[in-house]
Design a protein that fits this description.
single chain; about 270 residues; mainly alpha; two-stranded antiparallel ribbon; 9 helices
């Protein structure tokens, strides 16, 4: 595939970073529309997204530096390559840090948390679809070896250096599977937005959908570095997916006794 999207002189523009940036911009634009749909200030939603994003990026990169401090001390220039490193644990850590920062901002601005979560559900799913397409181009989170007509083969040494993708081996384009699934989830959430009955309904559906997508697509991903659990019964992301589904079920069950959308919601 194409880990480098294009060159500007000696400067390389990584496909993963470019697609993640495009996904972010699309998500921010879409969030302005969905915020109005749930009666939340688009300006506050914009600020929340920016704060959460920077907290996630900064937190995950600082964690990477701490975990590899000796290497950073010996090779300081290695820090310039941090943006090319993608790992499931870093993604989870970044998501947790960003989520905490976003929640703190929402509470400080007295935003209705569940309505805000509903507004962000479809945009986040759209952003994840773009991110997974970037991962497909870069070779990040690559699939298992496959022998079907739609298998992809990575030939660029940068795909191996940056993401550990195998060179010359046909593998499942599992990132494409995930991208299509997240895009479908985003469209579904947009369709359901006008029919939302209670705050948190869309957030619950998004969490459940994301959990199902992650669990199923992990079947075709290479598990190297993703943490094999319970004697190989599942990997780390699949365990996280189960937690997401359980959290979604709890949220949707609680919504039965919650006020209708548009009512008071702290």
């Amino acid at each position: 595939m194409h880990p480098v999207l294009f060159h500007i002189g000696p400067l390389l523009i990584p496909s993963y970073g470019a697609m993640a940036a495009i996904g972010l911009l699309l998500a921010l634009v879409l969030a302005q529309r969905t915020a109005r749909g749930v009666g939340v200030s688009p300006a506050h939603v914009w600020n929340l997204c920016v704060i959460g994003l920077f907290a996630a990026l900064l937190g995950s990169r600082l964690l990477l530096i701490v975990l590899n401090w000796r290497d950073v001390v010996r090779h300081p220039l290695w820090m310039f390559g941090l943006a090319t490193i993608h790992h499931p644990l870093l993604i989870v850590a970044g998501a947790i840090i960003g989520g905490i920062a976003a929640w703190v901002y929402a509470r400080s601005q007295h935003l209705r948390v569940l309505d805000t979560a509903d507004a962000l559900s479809a945009p986040i799913a759209l952003g994840l679809a773009c991110e997974q397409f970037g991962a497909l181009l870069a070779g990040s989170s690559f699939g298992r070896e496959a022998r079907m007509p739609w298998a992809v083969v990575y030939t660029s040494p940068l795909a191996m250096r940056w993401s550990g993708a195998p060179i010359g081996v046909p593998v499942h384009p599992v990132q494409a599977y995930a991208a299509v699934a997240f895009l479908t989830l985003s469209i579904l959430l947009l369709v359901l937005l006008p029919a939302r009955r209670r705050p948190g309904d869309l957030a619950g559906i998004a969490l459940m959908g994301a959990g199902i997508i992650i669990y199923i697509t992990e079947i075709w991903r290479d598990w190297e570095g993703r943490g094999s659990l319970f004697h190989g019964a599942m990997d780390g992301p699949q365990l996280a997916a189960i937690i997401l589904v359980l959290a979604a079920a709890l949220l949707l069950c609680e919504r039965r006794s919650a006020p209708l959308a548009g009512g008071p919601n702290a």
